[in-house]
Amino acid sequence: MPTATISGQEVTVDDEGFMTEYDQWNEDVAAALASQIGIDLGEGHWQVIKFLREDYKEQGETPMLRRVANMSGVSTKELFLLFPKKPAKKMAYIAGVPKPHGCV
Amino acid sequence: MKKLLVLGAGTAGTMAVNKLRPRLDGWDITIVDEDELHYYQPGFLFMPFGKYSRRDLIKPKRTFIPDGVNLVMGTIEIVEPENNQVLLTNGTVLPYDYLIIATGTHPTPEETPGLESDDWYQTIFDFYTIDGAEALAKKLADWDGGKLVVNIIEMPIKCPVAPLEFAFLADSFFKEKGIRNNVHIEYVTPLPGAFTKPVASEHLGGMLAERNITLESDFYLERVEDGKLISYDEREVDFDLLVTVPVNMGSEFVGRSGLGDEFRHVPVDKHNFLSTKFENIFALGDAAALPTSKAGSVAHFAVDVFTDNFVDYVGGKPMTEAFDGHANCFIESGDGKGMLIDFNYDVEPLTGKYPVPGAGPFSLLKETQLNHWGKLAFRWIYWNVLLPGRPMPVPTLMSMAGKNPVEQTQTKQQVGGM
Predict the structure, then answer these.
(1) Domain count of chain A?
(2) Nearest CA to CA, how far is B181 from chain A (Å)?
(3) ipTM, 2 decimals?
(4) Is residue A45 part of a domain?
(5) Residue A10 lies in a domain
(6) For the packed helices A87-95 and A27-36, what is the interaxial angle rounded to 10 degrees?
(7) What is the pTM of this model?
(8) What is the pLDDT along chain B (418 residues), one digit of tens a residue?
């Protein structure tokens, strides 16, 4: 697995830059990952990111968009405003959880 | 006497009772369904183009239920896992020791505002139901052109390659009619490309381009209004004729019973299909929330693995077989040709030969006439070999033999691509 230095820390990432170790994540890393994809984290972002972290821990997989919208209190519409164009992928990237398995 | 109750006499449920009946001596096996008719769903794709009619695709379900299995016709109200029983809407109570949920997944147009409007089956159609496919056949028979949009609303859907096949077949159909120049075909998908996995997505995306089918990706539909698709991020795509795949949801009783996820699919162990909540409930086929395609081929491979495991499990032994997510789909590409893909949880669809390495006779991710004939012949295999639970001459678990490995450069995607 390749590694990357993010916000001064060495983290393990996959080919697409998604973090692979849940415990290497912290809020500074999240902010740095967000800025790499042009997102400045605000309150709404954090609400979603915290939900993703919790849900991944409980379920063992990255939630899909519908689940996030149903359970995080942030609607699909808002998710598209917070994480433009590709919300499912972007929020997983920032939350340090695997890319959602897009469903085959 | 131990009781096995199977909900749903579709592809997965029917195969399961056929495989299990001879293996469970002295068991009472009951299967429940609300529809007397078994539909050959892969055939729906061809109906809009006049290739099949209703009677080509229907047989009575009873024909496929073996002796010694009780078939109960009725609508399921709720599963009560704490009481180990299922209630039907007519008041019937069906107790069980073990329960298999195999009630599939269904197009649910009411999930999307504007679909079931006055335009439903006038200018907006689905082709995943026999009524939709038939209505669309009538529409296409005398449609003289305009803008055709083929759309997927949200993943997961059953047979995820079917919308692409529809686009390819539409291109071929309009060419044959001599009106291809009057038709603009656009493919509008929530996925980042033509398909999910990189190698297949690249091949299939190229095939769209070759056919002058435009691709609108990352389009997450919010509503349909005044002849336009409108996404959550306010992009608009107009259409004269919309062929959409509505959101797929599991049966309503799954939600009512608290057994489903947000799509009413049942969360299960992806290797043995045991419910994550109850140790005497399994889900098979499209009803299960599995990270692989929802398709008959998956149900078939899954039931093969499940049968041995279930016999061990009820005998108090550990389940030793692990399902790998094996899926295998013919893809019609139009003009009498087709392709084949073969993949699993870990290995994406690759090029090569199947099932015999080097010899085939089928070619993976490549358009050939033989693949097309394979797809047509499959209807006979489905009724006569697959549903009755007879052995198929292909391996249950996916094999890398005959497949060409991914060229490293092809799968690399950059974060900048987000």
Answers:
(1) 1
(2) 32
(3) 0.88
(4) yes
(5) yes
(6) 140
(7) 0.93
(8) 999 999 999 999 999 999 999 999 999 999 999 999 999 999 999 999 999 999 999 999 999 999 999 999 999 999 999 999 999 999 999 999 999 999 999 999 999 999 999 999 999 999 999 999 999 999 999 999 999 999 999 999 999 999 999 999 999 999 999 999 999 999 999 998 998 788 888 899 999 999 999 999 999 999 999 999 999 999 999 999 999 999 999 999 999 999 999 999 999 999 999 999 999 999 999 999 998 899 999 999 999 999 999 999 999 999 999 999 999 899 999 999 999 999 998 898 999 999 988 888 999 999 999 999 999 999 999 999 999 999 888 888 999 888 988 764 344 444 445 6
Chain B residue closest in CA terms to A71: B262
CA distance B214 to chain A (A): 19
User: Which of B220, B262, B327 lies at the smallest CB-CB distance from A70?
Assistant: B262
**Chain A residues inside the 8 Å CB shell of B220:** 65, 76, 80
Question: Is residue B361 reached through a cis peptide bond, with omega within 30 degrees of 0 on the bond before it?
Answer: yes
| Residue A37 forms part of a structural domain | yes
Domain that holds residue A54: 3-95
Considering the domain boundaries, does residue A100 fall inside one?
Answer: no
Q: What domains are there in chain B, each with its CATH number?
A: 3-107+249-314 (3.50.50.60), 109-248 (3.50.50.60), 327-411 (no CATH)
Test A76 with B222 for CB contact under 8 angstroms.
yes
